[in-house]
Input
Amino acid sequence: MRVLVAGGAGYIGSHTVLALLARGHDVVVADDFSNARPSVMDRLAELAGRPVALEEVDLTDEARTEEVVARSEPDAVIHFAGLKAVGESVREPLAYYRTNLDATFSLLTAMRTHDVRRLVFSSSATVYGDHAPVPYPESYEPLAAASPYGRTKVMIEQVLTDVGLADPDLRIALLRYFNPVGAHASGRLGEDPQGVPNNLVPYVAQVAVGRRDRLQIYGDDYDTPDGTCLRDYIHVEDLAEGHVAALEHLEAMATPVRAFNLGSGRGTSVRELFDAFCAAVGRPLEAEVVGRRPGDLPAYWADVTRAADELGWRATRGLEEMVADVWRWQSANPDGYPRERAGQHPDVTPA
Ligand code: UD1
Output
């Protein structure tokens, strides 16, 4: 299939691009590099053994998005594009609603114009809110997220469900990710957050390379085996393969819209993850226990039976592999991706 990957230069998008190419699909990346480095495209070309087609576009621009879909003539779209920092979404709700919803509207409008009826959407476990039974089943309703970021995911799932009801020929997979971590086994692709990382694994990785002093563990007085929160960490390469499985399953879907959890199906505590990371690095790292982070739930993980039964997919990479791959990426790229693309130079020559 020819696949337009919206947000394909980002953390999960870039790994998915490689997984698609490995399965023989044709890929066009659409990205505006608002939260990704253009040099990701060099790394993708290096790993793919050939350049990967790129459309540099702000997907909230409906006219430009239409041009991109017209030019790239995709059979399907995988939609990763959007803002994703929970805390920032509380401070800048309008930017989150506008960016995440408008990009989706532009893509859906252009897809309708050009008769593209296959879509895979990046959703999140955050749509289950605070009251779903653990492990979270896809059948749970009502969806309710606790942040503006999460509510954009709930809203987009609702929009896609309504669009699917109006056009029964559409096939849309809603992929609810649990906690994506890890990096490409080559050490050439990984997570490269701008500023102070919000999430546990990139934070620990930056402690390990000396960019941060110590991890702050947000609470060890939860009702869990070691008192720290349990989450369902999933290797980004498993997640990428889950997208390929979902894409290839669209045709066989009995209903226009279907949600799938992409997780490992097991809970890992903050302490277990931290200890595994120290083992991968081969020396102790600094951590201190501080108060709970507002909004954190004690423990949740995915019910993975639907993805296994219907997509024929399950996560295969364990915790050791996740942290080893993060460490390989972070130690080889302590400051993340290069700022410039190969052969390109800054506009301003430093004095
Ligand atoms: C968060 C978001 C979720 C989003 C996901 C993306 C919230 C409430 N949820 O999930 O919507 O989809 O990121 O991956 O923000 N922790 C520490 N110290 C740190 C950072 C984290 O102890 O410096 C702990 C947290 O308390 C939590 C666990 O590590 O128990 C994982 O945290 P994080 O990586 O931020 O992910 P989530 O909060 O699960």
Observations:
- The mean pLDDT is 96.
